[in-house]
Amino acid sequence: MSSVFVDALNRLDAAFEHAQIEAESLERLKHPMAMMQVSIPVRRDDGSLSIFQGYRVHHDDTRGPTKGGIRFHPEVDMEEVKALALWMTLKCAVMNIPYGGAKGGVTVNPKELSRLELERLSRGFVEQMADFIGPDTDIPAPDVYTNAMIMGWMMDEYSKIKRKHSPDVITGKPIELGGSLGRGDATGRGAYYCIKQLEQKRGWDPKDITVVVQGFGNGGQAAARLLHADGYRVVAVSDSQGGIYKDSGFDVPSLIQHKNDTRRLAAVYCEGSVCEMIEAETITNEQLLALDVDILVPSALGGVITAENADKIKADVIVEVANGPVTSDADATLNERGAFIVPDILANAGGVTVSYFEWVQNRQGFYWELEEIHRRLERIMATEFGHIYDLAQVCEVDMRTAAYAHALNRIGGAIQAQGTQRFFANHTGE
Ligand code: NAD
Question: Residues 262, 200: one domain?
C-alpha cells in the first residue's frame, strides 16, 4: 500500500477514539466498496494509438450515491484514488450532504495532449466507465487538470451511451450545459468562509493578515481573490513553475487575468486589458511554503508538507484547499508548534457542496440564483466549521481529528442504523 492511503487510515484510527462509532463500522470504512481499472485507447492526431490507464473507486455508499472528482495527472494510481475516495466519504459526511465517497483518475500528462486528444480521452473514460457511474449510483466532478468543458464532454458521452439526456450524471459542467451558478469558485469560496469564521473567533483585522497561496488554479485563485477583496494581504502565490513574492501584497485580480490570458504566473498590475510587470521576488515552491506569514493556503497537490519540511513551516494557520497537502507524520510537528490547521475535508468541501446543489437542480430542472447558492453554501460551511471547532475544544484535539470524528459520527450512525454485531448478537427480537 502506498503511504497516502495508509496515511488516511492512520487518521481514521486517531479519530476513532473521539467518535461514537463501533469498531466494526470503522473496519468497513477501511475497505473501499469497489474499484475499477480500465484501459482507454486514444487515437492521436498523428494517427498513432496511445493507451491510458483509468481508475474509479467507490469507497462507501451508506449515506447515498458516491461522489468525487476525476483527476488527470501523470502520478495518478489506484492507491492515490483509494485515499481520495475515502476522503470524499468523510467530506460528504462532514458537510451532511447525502452522498458517499468516490474518486477517479487517469494517468496522463494532459499538457502533452492536443484539445482533440483530450476530448477523445475524456469520452473514452466514460465509454469504459459507463456502467460504473450514474446519476443514482456514482456522480463524478472535476479535480486536478480537469475542468468544466471536460465535464461537459463526459456528460454528453454518457447521455449518448444511455440514449437519455443525463445532466445529473456529472457535476462541474459549463453553465450552458446544466452547470450550477457558483460551482466555478465554490472550493476556494468554501475555504474563504472557513477563514471568515476564524476571523470572527480571533478578532482579526484583514489588513494585518498575510496570506500565501500555493497552486494558482481553480481553488487557489478563488480563495486568493475573495481574501484580497476583503483586504487580506496576499503576499505570495505559485504554480507548478514556481512562485512570486511581494511583501506589500499583490493585486490578485491582475494576477488571475494575466494567468488566464497567458497561462503563466507573473507579477503584474493590470488596468483594463493592459498588464504591466511590477517588482517582486521569484521564489521556489519550497521557499513559499516556509514564508513567515499568518495564513498558508496549499492549493496544489497532496503531500507537500511532510516530516522533512514540517519544522520549516512558519504560518500560524494552514487552510487545506488541496486534498492531503499535509502528511500524517507532519501533523505532529505542526500541532506541537500550535499551528491551526483547517483540514481538507472541511476547508475544500465547498466544491462538493455546490456540486450537490448542481445535482439537485439538474434533477428538479429548476435553477437557483447565485445569491441563493452563496447563502446556502455559507450557512453549511459556518455550521459545520462551528461543530468541528466546538468538538475540537471539548475533546482537546486538533481540528483534523475533530473533523474526522464528526464525519465518523455521521457515517457510523448510518451504518449502525442497519445493525451491527451489537444488534444481531442480541436475539431477543426487540
Ligand atoms: P487546478 O488544476 O485548477 O490547479 C492546480 C494548480 O496547482 C495549478 O495552478 C498548477 O500549476 C499548480 N501546481 C501543480 N503542481 C504544482 C506544484 N508541484 N507546486 C505548486 N503548484 C503546483 O486544480 P484545482 O481544481 O484547483 O485543485 C487543486 C487542489 O484542490 C487539488 O488537491 C484538488 O484535489 C483539490 N480540490 C479541488 C476541488 C475542485 O472543485 N476543483 C475540490 C476539492 C479539492
Answer: yes
pTM score above 0.90: yes
Helix, coil or strand: residue 149: helix
Enter the C-alpha cell of residue 379. Answer: 450557512
8 Å CB contact between 404 and 14: yes
Strand order in the sheet with 49-60: 34-43, 49-60, 100-107, 66-73, 138-142
CA 114 – CA 45 distance, rounded (Å): 8
In a domain, 394, yes or no: no
Find the residues whose C-beta lies inside 6 A of ligand 1.
142-145, 187, 214-220, 238-240, 285, 299-301, 321-323, 348, 351
Low-confidence ranges of the chain (pLDDT < 50): 1-2
CA-to-CA dists, residue 398 to 335, 339, 401, angstroms: 7, 9, 6
Residue 11 lies in a domain: no
CA–CA separation, 176 and 172 (whole Å): 11
Closest CA to 107 of 80, 74, 83: 74
From 347, 382, 404, give the residue that closes a domain.
347
Question: Is 400 inside a domain boundary?
Answer: no
User: Can you say whether residue 267 is alpha, beta or left, with left for phi > 0 and alpha for psi between -120 and 50 degrees?
Assistant: beta
pLDDT at 45: 98
- pLDDT at 14 (0 to 100): 92
> Smallest Cα–Cα separation from 28: which of 421, 428, 357?
421
DSSP per position, 238-306: EETTEEEE-TT---HHHHHHHHHHHS----EEEETTEEEE---EEE-HHHHHT---SEEEE-S-S--B-
Question: For ligand 1, what atom is nearest to the CA of residue 221?
Answer: 26
**Catalytic one of 67, 91, 103, 196:** 103
Q: Show the domain range for 203.
A: 186-347
Cα(83)–Cα(302) distance, integer angstroms:
11
| Rounded Cα gap, residues 261 and 160, in angstroms | 33
Is 30 among the residues known to form the active site?
A: no
Q: Same structural domain for residues 163 and 190?
A: no
Pairing of strands 210-214, 340-342: unpaired
Distance 164 CA to ligand 1 centre (A): 32
Q: What is the CATH number of the domain that holds 95?
A: 3.40.50.10860
Please report the pLDDT score of residue 428 as a whole number.
Answer: 66
For cell 493585486, the residue is: 251
Can you list the positions of beta strands (E) in 114-193? 138-142
For residues 197, 198, 204, 206, the Cα torsion angle rounded to the nearest 10 degrees is: -70
